[in-house]
Structure formats: structure tokens, C-alpha cells
Design a protein that fits this description.
The complex is a heterodimer of chains A (about 130) and B (about 140). Chain A has about 130 residues and is an alpha+beta fold. Chain A has a single domain, classed as 60s Ribosomal Protein L30, Chain: A, CATH 3.30.1330.40. Chain A is built from three helices and six strands. In chain A, helix 3 links the parallel strand 4 and strand 5. With about 140 residues, chain B is of the alpha+beta class. Chain B has one domain: 2-Layer Sandwich (60s Ribosomal Protein L30, Chain: A). Chain B has a six-stranded mixed sheet with strand order 1-2-3-6-4-5, with helices on one face. In chain B, a hairpin with a 2-residue loop joins strand 2 and strand 3. In chain B, helix 2 packs parallel to helix 3. Chain B is globular and about 50 Å long. The chains are: A alpha+beta (about 130), B alpha+beta (about 140). At the A-B interface, strand 2 and strand 6 of A face strand 4, helix 3 and strand 5 of B.
């Protein structure tokens, strides 16, 4: 089975270059695409875009759309999402923004309360179909 | 089309690293399903003694990834075939030190990675799980 690196679709989304994260943006293997942890980073400049959980989630889904579409997939082909949020009190806030992006049939999802780097309020760990 | 994927258990050649069997836990070190290999979360265990290792975080990461290499090689594959990895730390402040050691193990085309921190059991400083392709 082939293992292919998916390159960053925009310069800002190369987290390895901007932040030294030793990772590929995504790996395609056997009809599935595995994305590195998606963070609210400006896709053009690579700067962190801290904000409310809602604002950060909008940024992340924008980046995820760019990444998946550059790999020939899309948000409609999400398979599994782990949503890591900083505080479970924001669970309903997450759902309100999340449902805007998965209107055509949401994927399997697990939400965890965990700390992400740099104090981000949300990070998404995503598997999609190629 | 209905296709049934072959399913088998992955075990380390070094029995001291078979944490689930040694502690009689209800999981296995890994499962191969088709050409995908899913490993259980691995924590720093000394491959010589089978004891937990709670030294500096960099050494914990090095030991855990060394054991992961052994696990994958026992299954006929390698770290170079890892597709996706989850690195869980007890302390988010250890991210930079984790990353410093981590890159020793993935010199080219590193896997997709998500890293975060949450409470870990037994005082472990890290727990790492991966999805790899068969060799």
C-alpha cells in the first residue's frame, strides 16, 4: 500500500517551516487521508490566529478545506474527527460552529478536553476519505 | 462490494514489552487489519527490565519511540511506514523537548501528527500511539 505525503496547500500551512513541528501536513494511505493536528494558523502568513473557540474553529475548518481539497478530497468526505477543546464548558459552542461545516452528513466524532500548544482553544485531528 | 479484511494481533518479539499481556489488561499491543496496523498507546517501559521508566521527558520519549520501532519491526514493518501518530504528554510544556527527540526517529517524510496534553496514568510523561502500514 502506498504512503504519500500531502504538501501544504498554502505557505502558511507548513507548520514544520513556521513552528518546527516535525510532521507532514497530511499522509494519504490506502484511500484515506490522515491530517496532522489542525490549528488556527493564518494560511497565508503562518501566524497564529488566537481568538474565541468559534473564531479559531472557523479558521481551522478553512484550513482543513484547503488541505483536503488540495488532496482531491473535501469536508463532505470526513470519516472521523477528534476535537480537542480546552474546556468542556465550550462543548455547545463547538457544536454550533462545527455543524456549519458538516451539513452534508457529519463524520464520526469524539470530543476531548485537552491542552493544545500555545494556548489554542481547539485542535482537530482528522481522517478523511481520499 | 463486501470485503472482509484479514485481522491479526501484533505482538512484540521482546516479551517484556507486551504490556497488556504482562498486566493482564483487556487489550493487545496492536491489530493488523488489511494493510493497516493500529498500535495501542505506548508508554516508557525499559525493554531490558519491563519496568516503567520515569526519567527526563526526552528519555521517556526516546524509550517509547524505541519500543514502538521494535513493535513495528516485530510486525514486519518500520517507523518509516507510520502514517499517523498521536503524541500525548502529561505536560504541554514538554512539547519542545518531545519534538527534539522525536525528529531523531523520523528523518524523512514524517507522519501526520497530532500532539496534546492531558492527564496520564501511573505518572507517565508521555503516551504515543500510531497507525502504520504493513511492510
Amino acid at each position: 500500500m502506498m504512503r504519500d505525503v500531502i504538501a501544504a496547500p498554502r505557505p502558511g500551512l507548513d507548520f514544520r517551516r513556521h513552528y518546527g513541528h516535525h510532521q507532514s501536513p497530511a499522509i494519504r494511505a490506502g484511500g484515506l487521508i490522515f491530517c496532522s493536528g489542525m490549528l488556527p494558523i493564518d494560511p497565508d502568513t503562518g501566524e497564529r490566529r488566537h481568538g474565541t473557540l468559534t473564531e479559531e474553529a472557523h479558521c481551522i475548518f478553512g484550513n482543513l478545506k484547503l488541505l483536503l481539497e488540495s488532496a482531491g478530497s473535501s469536508l463532505d468526505r470526513l470519516v472521523q474527527v477528534h476535537a480537542l477543546i480546552y474546556d468542556s464548558i465550550e462543548y455547545d459552542v463547538l457544536n454550533r460552529v462545527y455543524r456549519q461545516y458538516v451539513a452534508n452528513g457529519p463524520p464520526a466524532r469524539t470530543v476531548w478536553t485537552a491542552q493544545s500548544e500555545a494556548g489554542f482553544k481547539i485542535q482537530l485531528d482528522v481522517v478523511a476519505a481520499a | 462490494m463486501t470485503e472482509t479484511l484479514a485481522r491479526s494481533v501484533i505482538e512484540p518479539q521482546n516479551p517484556r514489552l507486551n504490556a497488556s499481556r504482562n498486566a493482564n489488561l483487556p487489550h493487545v499491543p496492536g491489530i493488523r487489519i488489511g494493510d493497516y496496523i493500529f498500535l495501542s498507546g505506548m508508554v516508557p517501559v525499559d525493554p531490558e527490565t519491563g519496568e516503567r521508566f520515569h526519567g527526563p521527558i526526552g528519555e521517556q520519549v526516546r524509550m517509547t519511540l524505541g519500543n514502538m520501532r521494535h513493535m513495528l519491526e516485530s510486525a514486519g514493518t518500520s517507523l518509516a511506514r507510520v502514517v499517523r501518530i498521536h503524541v500525548v504528554l502529561a505536560d504541554i510544556a514538554d512539547m519542545a523537548e518531545m519534538d527534539r527527540v522525536y525528529r531523531e526517529f523520523f528523518p524523512v517524510d514524517p507522519p501526520a501528527r497530532t500532539a496534546w496534553s492531558m492527564q496520564l496514568r501511573f505518572g507517565n510523561g508521555c503516551e504515543i500511539e500510531c497507525l502504520a502500514l504493513a511492510g
